[in-house]
Hints:
The protein is of the alpha+beta class and 930 residues long.
Amino acid sequence: MGLTKQYLRYAASAVFGVIGSQKANITYVTLRGGEKGRYVAVAACEQVFIWDVRKGEKVLILQGQKHEVTFLCPSPDGIHIAVGYEDGAVRIFSLMNGETNVSFNGHKSAVTVIQYDGLGARLVTGSKDTDVIVWDIINECGLYRLRGHKDVITQALFLRDKNLLVTSSKDSFVKWWDLDTQHCFKTMVGHRSEVWSMALLNQEKRLLTGSADSELRAWDISYLQEEKAEGEPKVKKGKTLLDDDDDEDNEEGGDENLEERILSCKKAGSILREARDRVVSLTTDRKARVIACHGNDSVLELFTVLSEEEVQKKMTKKLKKAKKKAAAEEAAEPVVERMLKDEIIRLTNIKASAKIRWADCLSCAGGELKVALLLQNNTVETYSLKTSGKTPTANKTSRLTIGGHRTDVRTLAFSSDNLAILSASGDTVKVWNRSTLQVIRTMSCDYALCSLFVPGDRQIILGTKSGKLQIFELASGSLLETVEAHNGALWSLCLAPDQRGIVTGSADKTVKFWEFELIKDQGTGQKRLTVKHTRTLQLEEDVLCVKFSPDHRLLAVSLLDCTVKIFYTDTLKFFLSLYGHKLPVLCLDISHDNTLIATGSADRNVKIWGLDFGDCHRSMFAHDDSVMFLQFVPKTHLFFTAGKDKKIKQWDADKFEHIQTLEGHHREVWCLAISPNGDHIVSSSHDKSLRLWERTREPIILEEEREMEREAEFEESMAKGDVPVVPGETQGEAAPAGKKTVETVKAAERIMEALELYKEENRKMEEHKYACEHAGKEVEPHRQVILTTTPSRYVLDVIRKVRSSELEVSLLVLPFPYVPELLRLFNSYIQQGLEVELVCRCLFFLLKIHFGQISSNQMLLSVIDELRMNTLSKVHEIRDVMGFNSAALQFLQREIQSKEDVMFFADATGRLEEKKKKRRKRERAILTIA
């Protein structure tokens, strides 16, 4: 058998060029020992970057997996940050070390909102799948799923003092939920269009909502349970909130009575925004004293919520003014009504340098307000203003721009030494250090479409949309010359193999040849590089791509009529025409040995042609959208293609095989560049990111690669599966929080395997015992499976290793025949005091979902009765131990505090004595001198 061809894997190395992705919000975070308002967290595709806005540096990167980040929410204590993803997953990262230990998976589509409760113990998430899920962070599990909205969830807020939740959605409704009963007790229908955001103000006694118009609607909340007279008994939550059982005639108004007994919402008025379009985001500071909102423009509007004292002062002044006016006009005693505009007043507007996508604000000491803005052009800006001033003006404190382009990167190039990367966009060209990913040079340019490093790597040449050639010098970062090369867009640029000139192709239907020249600069007298036009090839259609063959014999030109024409370089005579693509060829490349030409088209196909006779060797369906870029790996017949389907693929032009797919970009991939040694690839995308890929020493086996692709497809189909149905439960407003995933199915399989092993080991032990009794002596046992622990402990270890957030769904997948054995094991675990909390959680869940089958099974009655006795006694024991330990810790805390107080006073008295001694010495010295 002959040797198989070996391919080496390219792996993702780094993501750079993106400052902040537009999909997720910006938020202030506090790092250990860092000052308030210095660090901001933004999404960067699937990662989260923590930026130090003062230094303009990345201080921490929270690594994601493959899905894009869609929402960020820091915890109240500032130690953690919850991150929501495109696939519906939520992960909680530590801001101390950037690691994640807690992850939740319950939504079927992108997470749109995350909020912590006041203590930071619960988390609420909303999604595009219209569900709201409440998670328990301490137990790392889902509590319940709330259903009721019909469109994307836009905001969800916990009420601090009440166990209530308020949610808003694009279905124009705001819903109030009682979390004790998981019931929606009130739906506000006062909006005519989508509710895009909301905020709670005035100690949660006012709700402010932003919709698709210029109004911010305010609603007064009155909690009616608090307003009851002292002698009147309080109404309990749950069923007793409804009318009495004997009032059957009043059943229809039950829900109305329920909502009226918890709270009532009445419209208090509206605040008019200056912008006429919809609210894009609405946020407040921690104390809800400042409101920041903006639309689709570049203006952030700031409002301040006055305290009760300030409102009273304002109303007193207003009344005095009205009385003065009434006295002058000899009118009746005036009555001044308290309006919404007296309580919420406009603070100022902040004009950003581009359209605002997200905003966050933070109140600091001394009445200072810090505002962070994530702009739509891949920029972060921060502002500071004093809220206490009469006319507060915002000062720009920092702007993060160097680490990325404002618009999409349309062209990339590697330097000849593989160390520098050139990237050019609609307004700037940047040169990056490949090893550190730091920007070396940033220069302003026209809209760039193609680029290359001039031999020697001291200059670069750009081809622009206006048909110009721009030559830059890297040492000084200056524009040397702008050449009016073409009358249309200059789509393609290729360096001649002899490195003495370039060829350009343009939309003006011409191909032009240029030679490098050194001329004396009139200003400095030094020599500088320029290009001299030598020849022109006139064609009948727009030129999309030009390429020299490596031996400089042929020139391939791609035209708008879907053909590729090949000419002799020296005479410009026509040689071959390659036709077969249904749409224009957007990219092409010629192999190093001049034998093959590969073309990529907007018809999503790649064709490989022989350069001798122009015969098509193979046509391959390459991408699900237009093929945007194609390039051979140097010195090989392997080539890479990039497409609008977000993927980069590697192909073998000899065997016509797809080798591997590089997935990572979240939008269309515009272009890529391969380093001269073939070890690195850099790619750019509409998601504003540049990605570096590195060739590893790991070989690729094609069969395994296809198998991995099939597994990934299966996992994606599993992820889109429905939420599991709990037996005996109606699918109403509340439902289980978990979601069936590949991990939960695997965990259930591991539990089943462990139970099978336990049964098998028990059977063997019984057989061994019977053999010993029959033989009358000890017989050597035959063990096939080697376990480090007993079989029953092995089952417990397997259950303990299941992730807490996936445990309940894994038990739900478990078939019922395994449940009786599991219940017997749980009984023995509780008797021995092993993992009582975990066992109780599993036990109660299994009893809940299999109640009918368990209660009808006579064989399990004795087991259930034993479980009842043992569980109650063991849980009481654990509760007593925890109470004792808690009391002991509180006692120790009091002791330490009292000792610290004593030590403090002792230190103070000791210092006082030292001061007295020094004063006496000084007095004696003065007396002796006198």
